[in-house]
Amino acid sequence: MADKRIRFGANTAAFIVLIFGILVLVNFLSSRRFIRFDLTEDKRYTVSKATKDVIRNLDDIVTITTYFSSEPARVAQIHRGIRDVLDEYKAYSKRLQIDYVDPIDLDDGEKQELRFKGIQEVQINVPGKGKLEIANVFMAISVGYSGKEEVLPIVQSTANLEYELTSSIVKVTTKEAKTVGFLTGHDEYDINAQDQRNQQLRQLLDKNAQGQYNITPVDLQTGEPVDVSVTTLVVAGPKQELTEREKYEIDQFIMRGGRAIFLIDPIIMQTNRSLQAAPLTTGLNDLLEHYGVKLGNNLVGDRRFHDTVQLQQGNMTFIQPYIYFVKVIKPNFSKEHTITNQLEELTLPWTSSVEILTKEGINGTSLAKTSEFGQSFQGVYNLMPGTPTPQTDLQAFSVAAALEGKFKSFYADKEIPSVETTTNTDEENGDETPAETEDTAEGTTITESAETQIIVVGTAQFLPQLNRNSADFFLNCIDWLTLGDTLIGIRSHTITDRPLVETSELAKESIKYICTVGISLLVILFGLIRYFIKGRVRRLVETQGVPTAIE
Question: Where does 177-418+443-492 sit in CATH, by number?
């Protein structure tokens, strides 16, 4: 008996030592190699490939310092989540230095230095005993590289932390910022205007730029070429027709390797007080068709997927479906293109179709489409909600497209257009005389571009009403053209809209009857089967004396 106890004790001790050794080995290996499992569909809690590429390609040490108070518990909990994210960053690069500072340990002079950097205490509400108390805390992160520093003064969650961190790393490590130009002079969306719709757009761009690119207006009315510093040109909803010389300068900008995004409205409102609209002519259709995209000169609706509008009648507000506000849902985005493969939905108000044409050396991708219940309308439009729409053929229409490749110049076999200077108007009769022109046909037309990209969207009307989805789409377009796909995948991690999948009426009715009748029938069927089995067993017992355990 004593020998058995000794053997049992020895086996137990050996088992404990073995388990302890395995734990030590696993801990050692995990410290050498970061392993984490993310079971979400889009890997939302794993740093994106773009972030990994950025931090793996660092050429020198980047220091990330957190300044978080240890109290109260709410702040400490946020800090723990941030440490988890930073641990994952650290696992992918040896050139990241992570420091954690509790400002309570700093003296007054050090705290003053933090204030000069833009890091200050913030006030938060802390639940106390039956009341809310005010606490002064630090909740900041700084990113430093070679004497440059970028500060995130208030970090209240990890929801958008990856994008903000990686953007800051890119900003401090970027040697030279690029420039995004916005065309002006044709009643486009003016980024420098003081009205609310344009201020929102400018604030969004400034926040997104994060020092990675500058924003500037581009005026081509004098016949001067697009400045050489401009990397990407945005043509955002011109309401007036461009001159041939302006189109020529845009063409030559693209031939020099510049990128461009064209947001072209198909209609213009005839009055401010009604929704009567007429086709809009910008003069860009032939230029874009030459590159490989044909604007439909139409208005597209979607009878299946569309947004709603609010109608005010007296003191009553009504919400009504509106087929002219096309809603693109996830299955109708390009799954391959980095601009759209993470988007959930996008509403494009009053958009035209965008048809991709076959052009040698050009790769075209439809970024967004209507459902198969899309419709095309042409003519003068009555866009009042509730107005009956004509019956037209139903089909899917592309409403946004991206082109990549080497483009041929639209002016390869043409003379360089002259600059229109003035238009003389007879005030008494209201007649216009032809504009005077200046002969500036100097230089040589570039006939073929280097590898570059163009995006065409059939509307610019989503810009004044930017929401989360439309903002992400627009910023993805700017980033793809200007910076590549570095930050697009990171921003998409912050998108949380998960709309219900649309189902047909037949499917809805089937699910309803299965839930109300089908489950009851299954219970009845199970009871009948059990009843017949018990009856059969009972008869076997009575006739043959077969023992059974079934009650």
Answer: 3.40.50.880
Q: Which residues contact 485 (CB under 8 A, 6 or more apart)?
A: 50, 338, 479
- What is the C-alpha to C-alpha distance for residues 121 and 74, in angstroms, rounded to an integer? 15
Whether the Cβ atoms of residue 217 and residue 184 lie closer than 8 Å to each other: yes
- The fold of the 50-169 domain, in CATH, is Glutaredoxin (3.40.30)
Taking CA atoms, 62 is separated from 84, 90, 140, 203, 436, in Å, by 18, 11, 17, 28, 58
Amino acid in position 145: Y
Which tens digit of pLDDT belongs to each residue from 108-142? Answer: 888 888 888 888 888 888 776 666 778 888 999 99
pLDDT tens profile 259-301 = 999 999 999 987 666 788 999 999 999 999 999 999 999 999 9
Domain boundaries, the chain: 50-169, 177-418+443-492, 504-551
Integer CA distances (angstroms), 115 to 103, 154, 377, in order: 12, 13, 59
CA 455 – CA 403 distance, rounded (Å): 6
Let me know if the fold of 50-169 is the same as that of 177-418+443-492. no
Structure tokens at 484: 């590549």
Average pLDDT of span 223-229: 93
Question: Degrees (nearest 5) of the Cα angle 331, 261, 420?
Answer: 150
Q: State whether the Cα torsion 483-484-486-489 is positive or negative.
A: positive
CA angle 107, 110, 112 (to 5 degrees): 110
Q: Are strands 230-236 and 178-184 parallel, antiparallel or unpaired?
A: parallel
